[in-house]
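Input record (one chain):
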Amino acid sequence: MTDSASPTSLLGRPCRRQALLTLPAQEAHVSAARHFAADLLETWSVPTSERDSAVLIVDELATNAAQYGHERMTLLLALDHGTLHIVVTDSGAAVERHRPDLAPDEHGRGTGIVQYLAQSTEIHQTRSGREVRTCLRCSP
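The corresponding structure, as predicted from the sequence alone:
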């Protein structure tokens, strides 16, 4: 885990605050990602309503990364001028969109929740896995 207020960001541009957490891609570690985000965002004085939305986004994305990732998942939080960037990467292959063996009431809502809460969401398949980037506006 790293937490810095350095001017260099992992997002490729100057950033006020950022933190990085890498965990095994296992469901047992999702709560650690969620608690890490909640504690860090409180330290960064992110207002409660935005913090709650961000923690829910982290929970959904970390759950997906734990379910579909093979080795590790990485959570990047970056706060930059009123915008919180949440980036979760995993080492998994592309996810099949429709799984007929799963009941719709049990799976598949996480992405919709994330898209509803975030101002923007991007999903990229990389050589080493999957990357999901979201942005959430935060009041000063």
